[in-house]
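About this split. The held-out portion is used to measure sequence recovery: a designer receives only the structure tokens and must propose an amino acid at every position. Recovery is the fraction of positions where the proposal matches the reference. Here is one held-out target exactly as it appears in the evaluation file.
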């Protein structure tokens, strides 16, 4: 069986093999790749196809490999896997370009896969690959985020004057909050078309199952849980080792992640627990200027987005300057360390399917608080292995965090989280299930 994976990023393992910078996104895919290398099945061959979106990455790959392939794509080996990299502008995922089809068709002709496994419907390459594949029965789509759903909820909890506002950065980049929402709407239309063309999908929550059937009632849905990054299967969170009353948010750089909700909840928490601190990983959207000189302060003010400006105003008005720490982008081990030393992990998102950070926190056995939105209720049994609250309800969010800070309760839900996550994210079981799905699809096409 020859299987081609189409992914949104170059996997970290492949980037490390080439000794070039890499993204820490989509860690669960790294878990699946690691398992493939450990448990390589006989008579199988894997290729991974991914985009590059800048000249710097292209040159970095070319300096590391020797290739005679056409300029439309790059081909090289990493471990026992064939890799293909094609050109795509990932900064404008709302734009569908026919050039993608040409590149992907050449890759298909070169590898001639039995199964095409597309990971995610969020980018144009997913639709382009589907368009050029003659036998769509052999395509399997794994649902990640759902752009159509994101578009509908994008501006929730944000004042109308902020939604309609624009900063200098927004004007230059044509990327205001409204324009961001419009881009997700366009991506949602591409996604809708994709779902009408494919026959098979994998998902893991009631939310993504119902959404798949909304988009195509004839689609075949396979349940497949995700495998997380390897380091999160070792180590265990302990109350005695963490910073008391510390909150960890793994991402907050665009509205649906709900950073604004936790900033609104912080004042009441600080009133009761003065030691409260919030740590936020990912892009520093607020343009933290602490310790910066005047030139850098000016640059950061120019680069700030409407949403970043709004977050900054919440921090200033609620006097949270000394309570919020922006950590920047964290690699795998730094992320794990932050989980282990924080007293609670929160996921205040407006809409989610199955956020990786939430799953990784549960694997480490730490108390988690999450909005009961999208697929999250499929991951947490409220009060048993995590705490759910009504999305957007600041009072409920604050109350849930307080419950998580109770020492006896935190130990109970942390133990429950670890027990559930170890079962849900069992790498061997999930890997075996994936190959069962592949075999089933092949049988249908014979």
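Reference sequence for scoring:
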């Amino acid at each position: 069986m020859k299987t081609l994976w189409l992914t949104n990023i170059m996997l970290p393992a492949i980037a490390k093999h080439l000794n070039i910078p890499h993204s820490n996104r989509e860690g669960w895919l790294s878990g699946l790749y690691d398992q493939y290398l450990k448990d390589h099945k006989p008579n199988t061959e894997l290729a991974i196809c991914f985009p590059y979106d800048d000249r710097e990455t292209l040159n970095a790959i070319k300096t590391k490999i020797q290739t005679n392939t056409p300029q439309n794509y790059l081909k090289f080996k990493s471990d026992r896997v064939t890799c293909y990299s094609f050109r795509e502008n990932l900064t404008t995922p709302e734009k569908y370009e026919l050039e993608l089809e040409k590149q992907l068709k050449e890759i298909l002709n070169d590898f001639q896969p039995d199964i095409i496994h597309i990971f995610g419907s969020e980018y144009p390459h997913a639709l382009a690959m589907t368009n050029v594949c003659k036998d769509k029965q052999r395509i399997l789509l794994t649902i990640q985020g759902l752009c159509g759903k994101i578009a509908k909820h994008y501006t929730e909890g944000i004042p109308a004057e902020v939604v309609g506002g624009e900063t200098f950065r927004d004007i230059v980049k044509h990327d205001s909050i409204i324009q961001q929402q419009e881009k997700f709407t366009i991506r949602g239309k591409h996604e809708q078309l994709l779902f009408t063309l494919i026959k098979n999908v994998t998902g893991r929550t009631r939310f993504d199952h119902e959404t798949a059937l909304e988009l195509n009632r004839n689609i075949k849905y396979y349940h497949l849980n995700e495998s997380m990054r390897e380091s999160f299967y070792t180590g265990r969170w302990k109350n005695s080792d963490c910073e008391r009353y510390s909150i960890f948010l793994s991402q907050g750089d665009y509205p649906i992640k709900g950073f604004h909700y936790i900033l609104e909840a912080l004042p009441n928490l600080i009133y009761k627990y003065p030691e409260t601190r919030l740590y936020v990983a990912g892009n520093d959207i607020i343009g933290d200027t602490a310790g910066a000189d005047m030139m850098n302060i000016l640059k950061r003010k120019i680069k700030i987005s409407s949403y970043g400006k709004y977050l900054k105003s919440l921090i200033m008005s609620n006097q949270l300057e000394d309570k919020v720490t922006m950590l920047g982008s964290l690699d795998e081990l730094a992320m794990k360390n932050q989980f282990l030393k924080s007293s609670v992990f929160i996921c205040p998102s407006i809409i989610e399917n199955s956020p990786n950070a939430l799953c990784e926190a549960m694997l480490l056995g730490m108390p988690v608080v999450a909005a009961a939105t999208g697929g999250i209720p499929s991951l947490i049994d409220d009060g048993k292995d995590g705490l759910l609250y009504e999305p957007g309800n600041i009072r409920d969010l604050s109350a849930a965090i307080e419950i998580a800070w109770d020492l006896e309760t935190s130990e109970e839900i942390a133990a429950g989280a670890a027990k559930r996550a170890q079962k849900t994210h069992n790498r061997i079981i999930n890997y075996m299930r994936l190959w069962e799905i592949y075999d089933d699809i092949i049988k249908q096409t014979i």
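Annotator remark: Residues 2-227+426-445 form a domain with the Rossmann fold fold (CATH 3.40.50.2000).
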